[in-house]
Input
Amino acid sequence: MVTQTPVTSIAGHAPASQHGSRAFDVVYDWITTVDHKKIGIMYIVYALIFLVIAGIEALLMRVQLAVPNNTFVSPQSFNRLFTMHGTTMVFFVGMPILFGFGNYLIPLMIGARDMAFPRLNAFSFWISAFSGFLLYFSYFAGSGLYGAGTAPDVGWFAYAPLTARVFSPGHSTDYWTLSVLLSSIGSLGTALNIVATTLSMRCPGMKLSRMPLLVWLYFVTSCIAFIAISPLSAAQIMLVIDRYLGGHFFDTQAGGSAVLWMHFFWIFGHPEVYILVLPAFAFANEIIPVFSRKAIFGYPAMVSATVGIGFISMGVWAHHMFTVGLGPGANAFFTLATMVIAVPTGIKIFNWLATMWGGNIHFSTPMIFSIGFLFQFLVAGLTGVMLAAAPFDWQLGNSYFVVAHFHYVLVGAILFMIFAAFYYWYPKMTGRMLSERLGKWHFWLFVIGFHLTFDFMHIPGILGMPRRIYTYEADRGWAIWNMIVSSGAIFQTIATLIFVYNLVVSYFKGAVAGPDPWDAWTLEWSTSSPPPSYNFAKTPTVESRRPLWDLKHPEEPDTQYE
Amino acid sequence: MEQKSEAGHNAVHMPSPTVWPMVLAMGLTLIITGMVTSAAVSVLGLILSLASVIGWFREVLPHEAHQMVDAVEEEIEISSARKSIDRLPIDPMHRKLVPLEIFRITTGIKGGIAGGIAMIVPATIFSLLKYHSFWYATNLMAAGGFVSWAGQSDQFLAQFHLEGLLAALVIHTVASVLVGLLYGAMLPMFPRWPILTAGFLAPLLWTGLLFSTLEFISPVLNERISWFWFIPSQIAFGLVCGFVVNLQAKVRTPQFQALPFALRAGLHGAIGEAGDETHPKDGKA
Amino acid sequence: MSTAVAVAHQANEEWRQPSRGIVGMACLIAAESAIFIIFVVAYIFYTGKSLTGPTPREVLELPIFSTICLLSSSITVHFAVHELRASKVRLSAWWLAATVLLGSIFIASTAAEWYKLIYHDGLTIRTNLFGTTFYSLVGLHASHVIAGLIMLGLALIFTLMGKVNQSHAERLEVLSIYWHFVDAVWVVVFTVVYILGR
Output
């Protein structure tokens, strides 16, 4: 059954090259744009650049740790490397890339022409971008403009009192504080925009109960961002007051408390994990049904589980601080709260499995990345439950076991879903398909590299290897494991290079995608690829959760079942 | 938002491009950068910020700047690569077990409160028989909330303590309401014998869960609890809770709305009979 | 069973969504509240933990007058929006002017209080934990008041220039929500700093 729907293209859109200098026009166009799609793409490209930078930093650290007593980098550079790697990955890769996809997809999915506040959107992007440059400028001017350049070296959570002027002279720590503070302005702006867009810009018929799950999850993520990122800004302001005005917030000499910083940081830090992982879930919610050729299983359960995760995530932060000695009451509370969060997360995993169950599964690249995500996220969740038990955490806190656990979440779950999202929505963004053959190479090399690195990283942790050490003695029994871990990094590097090559080459030579290459059901596939600046010539009207399904199958529309 | 100008053409209002957001972001960044480099950078940033704030204001006040973009509607085929849907013939008994009427979830709260009150009886009998004190069970429950009570003697727990009473009240009320709510939510899944499931199976499950985890939640309670008495009091809770819930009115589910009118009006017998008619077909399949 | 028919949707059912300005301001308020909560928590956490004097009891006086001014400005800004809705622009301008005046009195009295604390009592942000937490919490609130005053002042100027009409009532309402929030924060700050913390 074939039906028709009005789809748009740009009329009379002359290429900018015809007048004046072409390069300048293109640059000016991108700098002044308030189009959510262009801003989304800028977010993604800028995050990819930082992903490569932070990836190189990780590679350097793995080279250093591959053999005992290595002198590849100095202890000082090693401290800078892990600080910059962590900060970059969280603030300048994870959040921008997820906000980028959100920016691009949310208005398209709810049938809107743009975000609620297009100018604020541009501002949020640019301030995030500039804050990233500010952070890396520290490599050239870390101790002030005239001193030798050094990057921050206090770790990504920058525990007090190491950040006090006495222990961190010069400006390198200020670069960290100020750039993170600036980037949080951008994150809050985008979160605000996403909430306002979701609530106020939906096309007729797009009730909250009909929104694609991706939009729901981004909505919850943004709500978490208000409550989680603002405390970080507050703590950074306090640190700036301490460092510039001589305040005593975290000055232990004057009665200040170092533990207070830990609380403030992790009140941000743990919900931040959910800010990063919920968009990954959001991608899975869109990709798994389409490639299983079934509607998502348990839509209301998915929404309520997401909201549940949002609430519980606010009450688990101190599980990062079991080793501080919080006392039995707090330990019991945070252990239980942390374990409880496994319940809504488990609901999600079962719903994805139920979606795939009995489906006609197509093993395209987005889907195989999603399946990898399902397995790896399960393992990451299980080690999370292990670490949630306070006595277990006392043994393994701050060891490589913890590092392996959270990289399992960040790489095994989030990065895998980001890759899946690239393969899935790249055709929409550029009008051309990514190469499936290169995609399969990318997937398998990355899976092998990922498991070599992060499965085996648990073992030196159990053997007692602490994180953030720049080298170790040969007689500890850690050498063989570290060698395996580092060798996995090589596979991941090759896979990432293939991915970047695929992105570039497919842009020019990929197969033409057409408006709906995956036979999908949400509104973004009802307009041309790439969509025109106004998204939809006519504002669409929806009657169910899968508007394109209704158009494709008028003999069996979803509206009958809602 | 849009006006039809010519046939097939839509003139669409889109916000016009503007450089000011980017300049403001750069200005703010430069102000901050001045803090780690030199004050001159901050001054430059301040000038850029002020200029861009003014520029931005002039763009949105009194009216937001717009540009008109011509949109052309183009007919593009939206079609599915796969065959059109043909549902498998479904056995009419399919989904028969979905209840037509269920309890409101809130009735669970009432049941939980009633059950919570009922539970006090066996708990008090236990504490009177074993420790000859009215307050022992109360204090034992409260001990979950007071870490300092961990080392206290039985005599101490047998005496009256106001804070113990209050803490036990809070814990007991919250737990009763939550369990009642859980029961209310689970009831639609057990349409057959609600009293049996609520009265015996659920308390046994709940007791098993507590038995395995109490060690971590409240070590004091775990040391002294008498499981022999705990189970009857749970069952008392479940029976009363189930009884109270059963007294409440049921509400009709969407399944009921989907029934043919004759069935809904009660003209055609119960749904069970309707199902019975189709049994011969099952045999064929 | 397959006779289930979806309830026909009313095609011309009015499609209403919340105003984006008000949603945006609600989000901003949520984020700002979180910032203030952290500063208030730090203030409470450090109450009485200063190693040296002066203590709050020695130097703080209850700013009753300025509090009354700030809280009553919430009422005046409400009337300004109300009158603008009713298209009474001149009346709205008067209420706006009253709001700006009351807000300025509050800021002026905060400035006077700080002047006294710094030059008379010798309490600066470096002196002790009380100084650090007091100036940052009250200063954070004052900076929000100043931002609000600038916006209200601009609104007043535009109104006097005759560029404001009824169609701007919603924007003024968004601004007034922000102003109510700033006042509500002051209630918390006042309670914590001047009543509980003393």
User: Anything to note?
Assistant: DSSP finds six helices and no strands in chain C. Chain C has one domain: 20-196. The longest helix of chain C spans residues 89-120. The radius of gyration of chain C is 22 Å.
